[in-house]
């Protein structure tokens, strides 16, 4: 099975913290900036602080790496956390800070700067764009609220594109959305498959938002959203085996979860993994190959990947 018909190419909630937040920035050359982004991303993974990398000028090979620290006491505290995460690397880089007022109505701001996103049959939009819903697509309403995953990030888009292609080939009866965020992927599955969906997130606020979004999109009865750390939840064991697992998280947990997820799969299961950079592809694939899954295809966008794997157990 291939993916020839695929289109071309952070979990901490904003509202949980006192505002403002502090953005800490460093500047580095291309390969080094990738390494520093990965280092900070892994260090702040459990805290849920977003880490991003952006080229300063096209083709200049000079990049900025930003970490957004939500709950710092002040700018000095934010810088100290980044220095601790970087370790010895911090001595080679000047760190600058910007105080951001995230309390400036995140939803209203998103309505000004974000537009609907189409990924295959799926059309993700905010409440302000209901009038733009296509008559024949699967419209999903998600406002940029207190958790990531509105459909605008490259990883969410890639997952939706991969799911669109997969759902043209077969149906699934027992899907799992691992790290659901706003619930957009679980909602997409429920809208197409019309089967019960299990959705989990380590963040209780994200789970509450996912439940609310499921009801908003008319699939509240189909989606069971629960708080879970990885595969550690009684519901996950009760509902196994899963014939489809979607995990849009980060490369670190994707690697660590390979074995426990693989043990919960049906013999013919499909797995969609996202939240990883192209440079992280090899180690993630190796972890899942060691658990019996083989590579089927991928979707890439802006340096981010969604990997499609199939269970090799027969």
Automatic annotation (TrEMBL):
Subcellular localization(s) per the UniProt record: Cytoplasm
EC numbers, comma separated: 2.1.1.-
Class of enzymatic activity (EC top level): transferase
UniProt KW keywords: Cytoplasm, Methyltransferase, Ribonucleoprotein, Ribosomal protein, S-adenosyl-L-methionine, Transferase
InterPro entries per record: Ribosomal_L11_MeTrfase_PrmA, Ribosomal_PrmA_MeTrfase, SAM-dependent_MTases_sf
Molecular-function GO terms, alphabetical: protein methyltransferase activity
Domain of life of the organism encoding this protein: Bacteria
Main location: cytoplasm
GO cellular component, one term: ribosome
Pfam families, alphabetized: PrmA
Chain positions recorded as S-adenosyl-L-methionine binding sites: 156, 179, 201, 248
One GO BP annotation of this record: methylation
Catalytic reactions on record: L-lysyl-[protein] + 3 S-adenosyl-L-methionine = N(6),N(6),N(6)-trimethyl-L-lysyl-[protein] + 3 S-adenosyl-L-homocysteine + 3 H(+)
PANTHER family named among the record's database cross-references: ELECTRON TRANSFER FLAVOPROTEIN BETA SUBUNIT LYSINE METHYLTRANSFERASE
Family: Belongs to the methyltransferase superfamily. PrmA family.
NCBIfam families linked to this entry: PRK00517.2-1
Chain's role: Methylates ribosomal protein L11.
Protein name from the UniProt record: Ribosomal protein L11 methyltransferase
Native source species: Siculibacillus lacustris
Organismal lineage: Bacteria, Pseudomonadati, Pseudomonadota, Alphaproteobacteria, Hyphomicrobiales
Designated gene of the protein: prmA
